[in-house]
Amino acid sequence: MDAIFKALNDPARRDILDSLRKKDGQTLSDLEGQFEMTRFGVMKHLGVLEEAKLITTKKVGRFKHHYLNALPLQEVIDRWIEPLLAKPAARGLLDLKQQLEGAAEMSKPDFRMETYIQCTQDALWEALTDPDAITKWHFMCEKVTREGNTYTYHMPGGNVMLICTETLQEPKTRIVSTFEPKWDETIRASRFEYLIAPQGEFCRLTVEHYDLNFPVVEGEGIADGWVRMFAGLKTYLETGSTVKYADPEMGG
User: Fold this and answer.
1) Whole-model pTM?
2) Lowest mean pLDDT: which of 101-105, 131-135, 177-181?
3) What is the CATH code for 109-250?
């Protein structure tokens, strides 16, 4: 918490966060031209923001891209601002983040599956979080776009299939995310969790899906979708091949 307040105390760092909010994924060179300071000065501010986990980074080739990470700010709101604003009518919204993060420990998943993939922990993490990588193994999606912590899954033709917003990341080990189906408006939003555990030259990947409002039937619906996704992910990571394990009856 101290690191967050230290990072936000400087107006230059707040300006950098504002710039990333407007355009995520900028490099040091992209940011350097926007501020009246040296390249080293911008780099130093980025280091403080990264240490406070207010930004995350991804290196592509020789370029390092910077992304706004709003989750630590939500923790500040929960601790310091929420008690001043909370009213019974608004309580559900203010508690959403806590419910999403803690529910997996307090309730039983409606669906759970695990597999073993011969790959590194870094490779698996990238495959689960990089939009371009997801399109290579997702059984139905032609394109995945990302804005902040929200991923939008597009089917062939451009229709939105699914929207997922990450509410918690424990780098390389755990992701908690919402699951908002758009292929059927009668299906309410739920949540799922990825758990990664390295096992020597393999990784064990577990998915747990919560808050489903219908029975999970093996070989159908949500359960079938997860099987197809894990099959595509395993093939992609172990062979480098892109295989879409789509149901022909769904037009895949």
Assistant:
1) 0.58
2) 101-105
3) 3.30.530.20
